[in-house]
Amino acid sequence: MKTWKIYLSGEIHTDWREQIEEGAKAANLPVHFDAPVTDHDASDDCGAVILGHEDNKFWYDHKGAKVNAIRTRTLISEADIVVVRFGDKYKQWNAAFDAGIASALGKSLIVQHDPALNHPLKEIDAAALATAETPAQVVEILRYVITGNLKR
What we know:
Layout: E1 4-10, H1 16-26, E2 31-34, H2 40-51, H3 57-78, E3 81-85, H4 93-104, E4 108-112, H5 122-127, E5 130-132, H6 135-147
Parallel strand pairs: 1-2, 1-3, 3-4, 4-5
């Protein structure tokens, strides 16, 4: 039986990833989840800590973004399905970029966000194969796609 590789991209301020992982486990789905580094400080500081401090904030962030991109590009390219969640509190430019990479690579893309974001995310939603509002809907999409059984 195939183990599906699912990459969970997007906001890091809520427990949406855990909800999807728990739902997939409860549904006994053959999945493996990957994600970006969700420790905000580690993600911001990795380049400067590993490669040397930068006084200029642009280069400080530049180093971190490139180091993080090694993980992101690799895991998105290996994924069967990419799920990108957009939260309400912050603009997730990185999530939009991940959705674009997934789309360009021909990955199956599921986008999840509140309906209030339908207009600002219309181009990303248009590239997605499914747009969900809740983690539970994402789990149901995964369950249907993987098992072929529709829960009624």
